Amino acid sequence: MEKKQFQAESKRLLDMMIHSIYTQKEIFLRELISNASDAIDKIYYKALTDSALEFDSTNYWIKVAADKERRTLTIVDTGIGMTEEDLENHLGVIAKSGSLAFKKEHEAKEGHDLIGQFGVGFYSAFMVADRVTVISRALGSEQAYKWESTGADGYTIEPWEKADVGTEITLQIKENTEDESYDEYLDAYRLKAIIKKYSDFIRYPIRMDVAGEEQTINSMVPIWRKNKNELTAEDYEKFYAEKHYRFDKPLKHIHINVEGAVTYQSILYIPETIPFDYYTKEFEKGLELYANGVLIMNRCADLLPDHFSFVKGMVDSDSLSLNISREMLQHDRQLKLIAKNIASKIKSQLLSLLKDEREQYEKFYESFGRQLKYGLYSDFGTHKEALQDLVMFHSSKEKKWVTLDEYVSRMPEEQKYIYYATGDSIERIEKLPQTELVTDKGYELLYFTDDIDEFAIKMLMTYKDKEFKNVSSGDLGIEADETESEAEQQEHQELFAHMKGQLAGKVSNVRASKRLKTHPVCLSTEGDVTIEMEKVLNAMPN
Ligand code: ADP
Ligand code: MG
């Protein structure tokens, strides 16, 4: 039998494939299963337009079988199969995708759910196998063919026998080397885990013998493709637990189904408790990313803005342009659109939680509020619109969380500013001499007890056209009482000069103040940087 050579380009490509396209060897199984699923889909799409063909989904499946003795791994499918010509064209020419051609042929009408497009996935089998044998019988043909290759040195095709339409691919798994073991690809539990990880939502059953019993490994219908009305809170909780997003229960889930310029489905969770490493460098944000039900990335950071980094969950889209290894995305335009969309959905979900389930929101805020405030401060306040309505502070009026909107909506008409005071704790702030004047006026005072608070608010500058004012800053805008008369200043001139001398280098001036009621002295600042901010800035490493 004549041995055919891969085209020269193909040889080089195959070499590249085996050595550098994929970072993880285990994905070969994802690629072969995706091809099997595509092959079944093709029958399904054909049946849509061909009345002679019936598609009874119970007849279609994918089977994975490992033989430890022979060191073989076999993937069988009941898909459309390949003719001799297909074997030659699709497996003989690397980077030629029969699935892409099929998609083009059936342009836009159907077939857009097919996974394949690059025509390289098949060759990933050579990362773990010395020899790959494909026996295939095409739909509508009696004759089967066998394609076989040991990699770069070419392939053979010969007529073969096969009882049913479909494809059987057998990998001769490599022997272990000094630095690499391939045994795991013959181990049923390991294979099961790989299938679960990447191919759980393949639409056809993937069967395998595990401990002497045939099991269907994949769950097939992804929960995110189901109708929201069919799903219960328990279903969402189960999915959260199954995906090991966290060990707690989610506080809230968001199920998104968007069709349009970009099409995607997503299930997002707002966790109930803070991950132990949340406010550390080790914490990594991100959502799982699926393309057409196949897992592409475990943690896609670009899908979440930092201020919503606490959100867990997944996104599935068929509008992504993947790169060849499907480990990265080729263009991020679609991804950016999805990310933007997701951020606004999270925001509106948080706003409705705030409006309708205040207690839940406060619970959430106690865990992740700091991150929201951090979001206001970072990127020079670019996320102002998204975040200003979500932040809360304690206040003098209610001794509980207050939003800026609540504060402003109950300000007396003559009140000029949104007043706040900073300190380590509410108790300490309440002892500050400067607070008295404001509270005596009947004005509400926000308590800033978190380092980030004042920085965040400085980025906001105003809320609903009201400026923020630290009670220890110079001009409080509380007229009349505010300015000291010249006579009074003169009267104590000598005393002030003496005090200033004593406190040289610590204060820049000593003056009479009408701001005090029951306290003899207070510190105040002029300019933009307040005492609390100075403290934080001084504590920062240079
Ligand atoms: P892609 O899936 O991106 O098209 P692959 O290298 O994975 O590229 O596969 C190349 C082509 O080989 C496919 O497009 C398809 O036409 C054919 N093929 C591979 N596996 C099968 C299979 N199990 N059944 C039928 N055709 C297959
Ligand atoms: Mg493929």
TrEMBL record:
Pfam families: HATPase_c_3, HSP90. This is Chaperone protein HtpG. Residues 24-177 form the Histidine kinase/HSP90-like ATPase domain. InterPro entries: HATPase_C_sf (IPR036890), HATPase_dom (IPR003594), Heat_shock_protein_90_CS (IPR019805), HSP90_C (IPR037196), Hsp90_fam (IPR001404), Hsp90_N (IPR020575), Ribosomal_Su5_D2-typ_SF (IPR020568). Its main location: cytoplasm. It comes from the Bacteria. It comes from Tumebacillus lacus. Residues 1-326 are annotated as: A. Homodimer. Belongs to the heat shock protein 90 family. Molecular chaperone. Has ATPase activity. SUPFAM superfamilies: ATPase domain of HSP90 chaperone/DNA topoisomerase II/histidine kinase, HSP90 C-terminal domain, Ribosomal protein S5 domain 2-like. The gene is htpG. Keywords: ATP-binding, Chaperone, Cytoplasm, Nucleotide-binding, Stress response. PANTHER family: HEAT SHOCK PROTEIN 90 FAMILY MEMBER. It is found in: Cytoplasm. CDD domains: HATPase_Hsp90-like.
